[in-house]
Amino acid sequence: MDTVAYDDFAKLEMRTGTVVEVKRHANADKLYIAQIDVGERTLQTVTSLVPYYSEQELLGKTVVVLCNLAKAKMRGETSECMLLCAETDDGSESVLLTPERLMPAGVRIV
Q: Domain named TRNA-binding: which ranges (predicted)?
């Protein structure tokens, strides 16, 4: 496993977030388009969580978000952040990372 310097790790802006809107992507079977409140702003993500979570399970969920990921287009939709998950090597299970206790949106992960 490669190591990274603390200065590189410190460049990652990870925050708690709240899923405030989620809908199925019209042109992809396994994708959701979700709006994530990360405190002072709301970011859009395109995430492949359809096999693991229903829309109802995601809505209102507190999550851990990588906020300063470069924007990317996924099936025509802009993804501005990434929801962090633990995923098995074979992809049979993917679980969102969440704070141990309830935290407000926007709290910095350190």
A: 8-110
